[in-house]
Design a protein that fits this description.
The structure holds 2 protein chains of 2 kinds. Chain A is mainly alpha-helical. Helices cover about 55% and strands about 10% of the residues of chain A. Chain B has a 3-stranded mixed β-sheet. A two-stranded antiparallel ribbon of chain B has the order 1-2. Chain B has a two-stranded antiparallel sheet with strand order 3-4. The mean pLDDT of chain B is about 90. Classes of the chains: A mainly alpha, B mainly alpha.
Chain lengths: ~130, ~350
């Protein structure tokens, strides 16, 4: 199972790593209890600072998507254990929609793109 | 054993060793051109590279390959002429490490020299880097049955030696009885350290052909780990052989030693054939994955300017700077390596005392 980061992507590397892992969890490719590589291994493979990967893992832990046990490593948490408010969940959607509107996309196009992405995520999670 | 027989055994071992070296030389000789005339090792070069300066770079690489031979031959001659046959085993062990280090350094130097003549578009780092989310731990590459077998062999050997020693302690020399097994056990510890380094060996791959690159790297990793385990098994077998040899009568000793030597030779030949077959498979895999330049996200060329550096936030044991490799002294494995070498020196000093 591979994850990709892109140096042309405006998002910082830790964000790309965190978002990539979230996507794999959402698609069901990383199941509950699946072990993640240690911070050191991931940082060495990417050739980045240890803190970069540590920040990504902290974000995932804060969102309840992974649990970190010192000495045993990190594992994917149960999705049912994440408690997030609706407002918290809507925030990234609002940001993405704002960017699409600012890019001049019509509503119908935005809706069809959103529907397509949702289908891809649901297809992966089955 | 008579001095003449010892000389014969050591000479045969040394000649076999030369046989494997010559085979290795052929392989390293062809390495720069394996990808075809458009490449020099993993550097995509300009069309006139081999008609110009590239030819000199290639010749200098070929000459550097012979550095270990130049060091080896006078030492071997002196050891044989003066009858210091024990020194030949140390020479082979040191040369084994020196040949690999010389090759890594030589390839790195040749590629850096060739990069000045590389195709500009090939020297642009790719934007997308892939990495695996599969955890890599030493236990993931460990066969518990093999570990139990090695541990059992070592424990049986030690218990046998303890019994042998206490049967007549006034007649037995502590260093003679336990010295050689102690060395082999320490060697096994060193090989476990090497396995840790091999497992930690970083594996970034470009997004294009990610699967091919990853497969080649992972198979190469498993190959080196298997080599470590084979060497550990050889050390465990030698540890087990030691009390057998000490306990055997003089009459049976010569026969036993001949059997041991024959088994060792047969194992060396079989393993040599397997290694060659495996190397060809790994080469085919490596050639399927086109080399590309990966982005230097840690700016290693700026932070690794000397042969050693101290970078606590850099996770790698070895950084690749502008002028070559740099050992990261902030990495735990470098401490363990230094402690191991210090322990080796102390062990030798202890074993030499009283001789």
């Amino acid at each position: 199972m591979f994850l990709t980061i892109n140096t042309d992507d405006p998002r910082p590397i830790y964000q790309q790593v965190a978002d990539g892992i979230k996507e794999l969890i959402a698609k069901g490719k990383l199941e509950e209890g699946a072990a993640l590589p240690p911070v050191r291994q991931l940082a060495a493979d990417l050739g980045v600072n240890l803190n970069t990967i540590a920040t990504a893992y902290r974000e995932l832990q804060k969102e309840g998507l992974i649990t970190v046990k010192h000495g045993s490593g990190s594992v994917v948490a149960s999705l049912t254990s994440t408690e997030r408010s609706q407002d918290e969940l809507l925030r990234p959607l609002r940001t993405a929609l704002t960017q699409m509107v600012l890019a001049g996309l019509p509503s119908s196009k935005i809706l069809s793109m959103a529907a397509h992405e949702l289908r891809m995520v649901e297809k992966g999670s089955k | 054993m008579s001095p003449h027989s010892s000389f014969q055994y050591v000479l045969i071992i040394y000649l076999l060793w030369w046989g494997t070296r010559i085979r290795g030389c052929f392989r390293r000789w062809q390495q720069p051109l394996l990808r075809g005339p458009e490449w020099f090792f993993n550097v995509r070069v300009q069309p006139d590279f081999y008609t110009g300066t590239g030819r000199k770079i290639l010749h200098r690489y070929w000459m550097r390959m012979f550095i270990p031979f130049v060091l080896d031959i006078p030492v071997a001659l002196a050891a044989f002429l003066q009858g210091h046959l024990q020194a030949m085993f140390w020479l082979i062990a040191v040369q084994a490490g020196l040949i690999h280090l010389n090759h890594v350094y030589s390839v790195d130097m040749a590629e850096r020299q060739a990069r000045r003549f590389a195709m500009p578009e090939a020297e642009q780092p790719v934007a997308a880097v892939a990495f695996s989310l599969q955890p890599r731990r030493l236990r993931d590459y460990t066969n518990p049955k093999v570990e139990w077998a090695l541990a059992l062999a070592s424990v049986v050997a030690l218990l046998w030696l303890v019994r042998y020693y206490y049967a007549a302690p006034e007649h037995h020399n502590l260093r003679l009885v336990f010295g050689v097994p102690a060395f082999y056990l320490y060697m096994q510890v060193g090989l476990l350290l090497v396995k840790r380094v091999v497992v930690a060996w970083r594996t970034p791959v470009p997004q294009t052909q990610a699967a091919e690159h990853m497969e080649a790297r992972e198979e190469t990793r498993k190959f080196y780990l298997k080599m470590c385990d084979w060497n550990r098994a050889a050390a465990a077998a030698a540890t087990l052989f030691w009390p057998i040899m000490l306990s055997t009568s003089e009459a049976s000793f010569a026969r036993l030693r001949t059997v041991w030597f024959a088994v060792w030779m047969a194992t060396t030949v079989v393993s040599g054939i397997w290694i060659e077959v495996k190397r060809k498979q790994l080469l085919a895999m490596a050639l399927r994955a086109r080399p590309v330049k990966l982005p230097d996200l840690l700016h290693q060329s700026e932070i690794a300017k000397w042969p050693v550096c101290y970078q606590p936030s850099a996770p790698m044991l070895v950084l690749k700077g502008a002028r070559g490799y740099s050992l990261n002294l902030a990495n735990t494995l470098s401490y363990l390596g230094a402690a191991y070498l210090a322990g080796m020196v102390a062990l030798f000093a202890f074993l030499r005392m009283g001789h």
